[in-house]
Amino acid sequence: MADTPDAEPSIEEQIAAYQREFQDLDPQVEQIVSALGRLNRRMNVAYNRQTSALDLTNAEWEVLKALVLSGAPYRLGPGELAKRLGLTPAAMTHRIDRMVAEGLVTRDRDEANRVRVIVEITPEGREKWLDAMRLASVFEEELLQDLDDGERSKLGEVLTRLLRRVEDAQPDAEGRLADLD
């Protein structure tokens, strides 16, 4: 097993242990799935460190990202934000409250429909989003530095196909981040 008792076993060690217990295991499939899972976890840790260095939580980053993805003027209703992030309205309200207090977003009544509330990214929130994107871009380029353009293109295509397959099989899981908060 791994060097220390608390260390995660290598993928090869994991596959060998699984094969002892489950003889029908396809080691090639397990290698791919295990590597993807570990890569995802380690990338999340790296992104978490980056957002923390910017005094931003991953939860706040997700809201800023959703607002930017909505396009200029970077405004959405709280219900739409909650739906996009897979959150309950109460959880979204709590998150927006924190972000308003931190000056990352504003929450105002829609002038066209006074019943409707609009959340909009502030210049400070947009700058934090840009800072996070700059850090992530450097990290991601370093991550993929050993792949040439053709390999990057092929990897992107293959991962997108896998993602679509999971989304088709689990349509209720689209965009759900609530389990990660």
| Topology, number of strands | 3
SS field, number of helical segments = 7
Strands across the major sheet, in which order? Answer: 1-3-2
Give the H and E element order.
HHHEHHEEHH
Low-confidence stretches: 176-181
Shape: elongated
Main beta-sheet annotation: 3 strands, antiparallel
Mean pLDDT: 90
Question: Cα distance, first to last residue?
Answer: 32 Å
Q: Structural class of the helices, strands and pairings?
A: mainly alpha
- Rg of Cα set: 20 Å
β-strand amount: 5-15%
Roughly how much helix do the residues carry, as a percent range? 55-70%
Short description:
The protein is mainly α and 181 residues long. Helix content is 62%, strand content 9%. Helix 1 packs across helix 2, helix 3 crosses helix 6 (123-143) and helix 4 (78-85) packs across helix 5 (89-101).
Can you describe this structure?
This protein is mostly helical. It is 62% helix and 9% strand. It is built from 7 helices and 3 strands; from the N terminus they run αααβααββαα. The chain has helices at residues 11-21, 27-53, 58-69, 78-85, 89-101, 123-143, 149-169, and strands spanning 75-76, 105-110, 113-121. Strands 1-3-2 form a 3-stranded antiparallel β-sheet. A hairpin with a 2-residue loop joins strand 2 and strand 3. The longest helix is centred in the N-terminal third of the chain and has 27 residues, at 27-53. It is elongated and about 65 Å long. Mean pLDDT is 90; it is low at 176-181.
